[in-house]
Amino acid sequence: MTVPLEVGAEAFREVMAGLAAGVAVVTTVDDAGAPRGLTTTAIASVSIDPPMLLVCVGRGSRTLSALLSAQRFAVNLLRRDAESVAIRFASREEDKFDSLDWTPAADGSPLLQTHALAWAACRTVREVDAGDHVVFLGHVVEAGAEGDHKPLAYFRRRFGTFAPTGG
Ligand SMILES: Cc1cc2nc3c(=O)[nH]c(=O)nc-3n(C[C@H](O)[C@H](O)[C@H](O)COP(=O)(O)O)c2cc1C
User: Which of 138, 140, 148, 155 minimizes the C-alpha distance to 21?
Assistant: First the structure.
């Protein structure tokens, strides 16, 4: 396969669709204290000591201003059975938290504990402008895992889960 020098958006999307990824809802609170959030796959572990992770948020996201203002956020790694939660937080619905089970972390960021297999509450330590996204580097200040659940994964524009190869 050849890689053209000028890579268009469609070609880039096609390549990145081949990256199987865990699905997370990134949450925060807005200036009025209301919970906000969006579905993401652009998340990564960055540092163990101190514990840090990153999240990439598109400039078109309505959650972005709350993330920039609050300077804190939580990453909720979804369970396999939480596809409807992922779809809801990927929508432009007005109140995504309506009738949803959530609790605040110690710093107030919303945790979706009954839909997550693990979560991490972060303090934002840096924001990096990266094209049409903003990268948030977060210092993990509180975290938890919720037992033996399979993850919700995303691959080639479809939801699925992880199956061990047995190797
Ligand atoms: C599986 C999946 C993964 C996504 N990953 C990201 C992501 O990493 N970053 C991002 O900004 N948007 C991502 N999106 C798109 C947002 O969830 C979507 O634009 C959403 O409407 C944003 O909500 P908001 O405008 O209320 O913040 C993803 C959507 C899906 C379905």
Answer: 155
